[in-house]
Design brief:
By secondary structure, the protein is mainly α. Helix content is 53%, strand content 5%.
């Protein structure tokens, strides 16, 4: 009995040490915060700082960076509602979302869902690439934990919204607002914000320049999620379905 107990305690200690090391990068994905660089070959050439925030320097596109204070609150809520509604309640990895994605992928025998939190997506966009490989997924999780340790939630959201792909060559919400609505970000309505937030799951599929009806269908879904999580009322959602075609 004592031997089994020592064995179990040893396993527990090893697991704790592994998780601690994993959250710091295992010496493989440890970030040099003074000179952060991508870990995998992709679109990002290097990483710079803007007001202390990490910004990817893409091969083809320049990012117009905005602070989260310059974004309307409903824009931020739209992203949280559709991309990671438990964002403010997890430490970088949404275990519930990850577990659901694993079950779906096992059932479909394909990578149908990724289960990535907003922080994981930011980690991928900055440091990694889009390869659907286990190594990339583990790196994404490890870097997400490091990002959560260094930045607060609003800073992570700010970096994410500024750098995500909105389709048609529009990286970052500033360029997307100008391209799709000919507006600055602070002038975006709830409906326009919902449409933009809906694009990032599959930007080249949902982009209005590709298929307007598809973009509006996705927008309705985002608005419904905002209602579900209490960000807007059902009446506001019904009034905000965008009708005009760009």
């Amino acid at each position: 009995m004592k031997k089994r107990l020592r064995w179990l305690l040893g396993l527990l200690l090893a697991a704790v040490l592994f998780l601690w090391a994993f959250s710091w990068g295992l010496g493989i994905w440890t970030i040099d915060w003074d000179k952060p660089t991508p870990f995998m070959e992709g679109d990002v050439e290097k990483i710079s700082y803007v007001d202390g925030k990490l910004v990817a320097n893409l091969n083809q596109y320049r990012i117009d960076y905005l602070s989260i204070d310059e974004m309307p609150p409903h824009l931020v809520k739209a992203f949280v509602a559709i991309e990671d509604h438990r964002f403010y309640n997890h430490g970088g990895i949404d275990l519930f979302g990850l577990g659901r994605a694993v079950l779906v992928n096992v059932r479909t025998r394909d990578i149908a869902q990724g289960g990535s939190s907003i922080t994981q997506q930011l980690a991928r966009n900055l440091f990694l690439n889009l390869d659907q490989k286990m190594v990339r997924k583990l790196a994404e999780m490890s870097i997400a934990l490091q990002l959560e340790r260094k930045y607060d939630k609003d800073e992570i959201l700010e970096m994410y919204i500024n750098q995500v792909n909105f389709g048609a060559g529009n990286w970052g919400v500033s360029k997307a607002a100008a391209a799709y609505f000919d507006k600055s970000v602070d002038d975006l309505t709830i409906g326009e914000s919902a449409l933009l937030a809906g694009l990032v799951q599959a930007p080249n599929y949902y982009a209005p320049v590709k298929d307007w009806d598809r973009a509006i269908t996705r927008q309705r879904y985002v608005l419904n999620r905002m209602v579900e999580y209490g960000y807007i009322t059902s009446e506001e959602a019904a009034a905000e379905v965008y009708q005009g075609q760009n």
